[in-house]
Design a protein that fits this description.
- The complex is a heterotrimer of chains A (about 750), B (about 160) and C (about 290).
- Chain A is globular.
- Chain A is built from 18 helices and 28 strands.
- With about 750 residues, chain A is an alpha+beta fold.
- By secondary structure, chain B is α+β, with helices and mostly antiparallel strands.
- The chains are: A alpha+beta (about 750), B alpha+beta (about 160), C alpha+beta (about 290).
- At the A-C interface, helix 2 and helix 18 of A face helix 11 of C.
Chain lengths: ~750, ~160, ~290
Amino acid sequence: METRIIGTSVPRKEGREKVTGSARYVDDIALPGMLHGATVRSPVARGRILAIHFEGDIPWSEFTVVTAKDIPGKNCIALLIEDQPCLAAEFVNHPEEPVVLLAHRDKYLLEEARRAVRIEIEPLPAIFMIEESFARKQTIWGTDNIFKSFRVEKGDVDNAWADADFIVEGDYETGSQEQLYIEPQGMIARAGPEEGVMIWGSLQCPYYVHKALVVLFGLPKDRIRVVQTETGGGFGGKEEYPSMIAAHAALLSWKARQPVKIIYDRAEDMVATTKRHPSRTRHRTAVTRDGKLLAMEIDFTIDGGAYETLSPVVLSRGTIHAAGPYNCPNVRILSRAVATNAPPHGAFRGFGAPQSVFALERHLDRVANAIGFAPDELRRRNFIHEGQALAVSQVIHEKVDMSHLMDRAFELSSYHAKHKRFDVENRENTIRRGIGFATFLHGAGFTGSGEEYLASEVAAEATSDGRVRVMAASTEMGQGTNTIFSQIAAETLGLGVEQFEIVQPDTAGVPNSGPTVASRTSMIVGKLVESAASEIQQKLFQSGLLKPRYTAKDFADACRKYIEHKGPLHSFAKYEHPRELHWDDNRYQGDAYGAYAWAVYVAEVSVDMRTAEVRVEDFVAVQEVGKVINPVLAAGQIEGGVAQGIGFALHENVVWQEGRMVNAQMTNYVMPTSMDVPPIRVYFEEIPYARGPAGAKGIGELPLDGTAPAIANAIAHATGADITRIPVTPEALMEMLESVHA
Amino acid sequence: MPDAARKIRVQCHVNGRATELEAYPMARLLDALREQPRLTGTKEGCGEGECGACSVEIDGMLVNSCLVPVLQAEGASIRTIEGVADGDRLHKVQQAFITHGGAQCGICTPGMILAAVNLLVRHPRPTEAQIREGLAGNLCRCTGYIKIFESVVEACRETEQRA
Amino acid sequence: MKAYLPSYHLEAPRDLASALERMKREPGAWKPFAGGTDLMVLLEAGKLPHRRFLSIWKLPELRGIEVAADYVTIGALTTYTALQEHETLAREFPLLCRAAGETGGIATQNRGTLGGNIANASPAADSPPALIVYDAELDLISASGTRSLAYRDFHTSYKEMRLRPDELIRRILLPRTMATWKQYYRKVGTRRAQAISKVCFAGAARVENGRIADARIALGSVAPTVVRAAQTEKLLRGELPSRAVLQAAQVVLVREITPIDDMRSTARYRLRVAQNLLAEFFEILSS
């Protein structure tokens, strides 16, 4: 398909504001009379609140104090269910659980006051490990500590073992990971019984916050308004947590009758907000002697923390991605999300798939090793092709060619030559090199009937001077939403991108296009933008005021005349679920996603045997994505995702002590600097997806799936260490090296 | 409070303009700049001198303003992100960040641009290693740094063409 | 920012003499505040125990690097950037310049000072191992006068040092005796830049006719203070840098350090790495 603007690197629409420092993030905003808010949190992991003491030499009468009993509606942060309190009332279930809110004009005195509140708690026994949760050492949630479980069946796993020439087992673990957006979480609220609730803040999903506040305040929908301010990174960390901090700011404002701003400092943000779900995966695989996968039995568990939040959905995506882009006739996946007394874990780019894909791709290298095959040969013999079915029995209806992607990635990374050369050179060196890869897929959009349930909407409106305003709830947080939507609309209408305004997401001004998550923004919402733009054009054509092959001036004239004589020129697009997609929620089978992006990533590492430090020396990322709407933005997504994946694989280690993160400083929780990233070489292929705008699929989360296993496989190649857990810290690797070389 | 410190008045220049900052002596220069001349371009990312989002120049030297007590800004000549462009004319580094994808969410961008501009003053034609080292005190979570490097290289190329 | 700012006093004395006068009149009440790269971090976390500070940042008597025949003298307020830019230091004292270049990023190096690093006395500080290796001497000053102290005698235990409450570190003196020695420095941190050290090793040796005539070895992050591995040095003197000597030295080294488990690393890892860095040092000695 020939395109004019789609496929070009149009500069970022809000770029000028960002490079001059004039972009306004929530902490840059001050309202008249504004107070600062702070949260007093539980010091223990589990217990019963006995009393709250306000001590110290603090002028308490100057403070606004809010506890659970001040909540007008229901004391919960409504999400999938309503189990998470907004403020703990009688019991606390995780360290740092919010109990008391304070507000005052002086932000320094506020901190003194925060220190002077003592929450007297009678501790209860708490659990912190997945094993303890299973064993029901304590039952801390529901009747059995299990938020959700899934069972996926394909073929007949139980009878496949008898035909196996080899059976290979493995246990894999991934740790927690902090999203570490450079802008900490923050909200401003202006609320009161007469005016309702107004929120400005750093967030990904304005309508999630809106829904939570409707329940918290018991107010009608039109009395709550949520506006997204310029957001300094999200990565999922601002998907569900903003509802909590918005609720807190709103409660304080409601009581104080002044606007209230709550900004977390880095330490509070790290210790109190969501992180990636830790996971355990057990694989049992039956293979024939010629490398064909006969059966895969996968057991996948994620730790959800103290409340359900989004764990069922994270589990869902992790489960569906657990068996990868392979054609295996017999598959069973049993999975569950369990409760522990840690702050709830939540959304982080990849959303369950990085966990299960790490296990799978590491496991298949070990399977290859066990049966005497090269790891790439094992993959090639089992890649899925058009007409074959994934583990959830989704038949693939596109010309996917993973072997070709692998050929390309291997050529670009000199995989075979380096693999051989390193094997020879490594014998003598204190710096050993390795090269490894991962082959994977990532489904875009909400799973199964999710998009149908979301029923997303986009609106557009033309003005008298021919500018077009696009109204969607999708948020810009650096990934390029504003620019991409402008390009899609500009392409559709044959105009320049500068004629489009992507309206600031405001629940009073934009329809609900669903959350900005799940790699759905370009593919699902972008398609609605295309439809809405197209409808404007259709209306003008039908009115006779505009003829095809018009100029920008023609368009502006037509808009002006239309509005003068007929009234507002607007359009509306609503999601329609493709009729060819069928999903069975009970059996967890069918068309899980409308489209998959397919990828092969290759990592080259060096390992200093003296210190067990791993350096990624080169990284090649090849992916098929339907259509690249903006090459610079798309490459930027992959590069940034790979950097996060490098952190996930090597550096980012959350140190837990009794359910609390103890290394909650940037000094001690380590993300990659400019000196820690290799050249990251990104290549795209395009097989258009019919339902995506100009054929585009979603790509935002893809890089988080394949990066860590590619690196782990490379480390195993370099050292012979049998990596089964990430992060591969030098300490952990040193222990493994000692046992390998003993 | 009997032994409370009193606020002080500090005279300095910010982006070429004579400025008085009134604050407690241990107040962070970061907060004083954001709250008084309301130069909100400089950001807080960590409050521990790790992320560089608060980078400014003091007397031509790159510093983390979250670690500078306002008392020590007496007599200083300070440049923030708002002082990088020449009126409406963007600095070549700023221009390159727009066209080459150096900014995604933008929160690290002011500090990153200060660091890049400072780097180019010290090394007008930096090697890749010098770029990486010059920016090592500025964390970016969105870009993976690759397009930031490309933006700096582009800005240098811009200079060479003009020279 | 968790500190209650009105509780904290910071004053700028007009010169060194008045700073020392104040410290003499109220010993221990006023702490010196240099570049702030350590103290401000504590302040922001609400963990700064002291309340009264004298800003010594601008005092000219504490700045400047002088090169004399026998010594290079470094003012306590010399920043890490200034250390790296000094030609004689770069040529004759490369370990100190390496340490300076690996302390934080450029913004930290522009404000962090050598005197501040010493007085902060973190066991994980990057410069102390280099200073120990170079037989550094400290010049301390108070209103009562000056005194000298060998740096190796300065730190007594965790965060304790031989600095009286009314004293400031004025200068650090480096004898110009090791310019021809083989020198080695390696900091193993949590990542490639801006990292807190897990193990830091500084070593220098005079090799004559293939034998180790003299050696200095110091380590950071493996004890409550910087450690001079004096027993290991003693074992090496007079020996060939052979594999057997290395193995014997590694055994002795392990007994001289007491690394711990903390949120950054483990005792086991630190021990193993310290031994491996000694081995890497040895490679330089035999080359």
